[in-house]
Amino acid sequence: MEQMGEVVCENSHQFHWPGYNFFAILGIIVTSLISLRLLRAIWNLWRLYIWPNLRPAQDYVKLYGKWAVITGGSDGIGKGYALELAKRGMNICVLSNFENNIVSEIRSVYTVDVKWIDVDFSTTEVYERIEKEISQIDDIGILVNNVGMVQSKWQPLADQDRRFMEKIINVNMATVVMMTEIVLKSMLRQNRGLIVCMGSMASRVPTPYATLYASSKAFIENFSVCLASELSETKIVVKCIEPCFVRTQLLKDMTKFTDFLKSYWSWTFPDGLSFAATATSTFGVIGTPVVYAGYVAHEILTLIVPHSIGKETLANISTKFLRWLTSEV
Question: Which residue ranges run through the membrane (predicted)?
Answer without folding.
Answer: 20-39
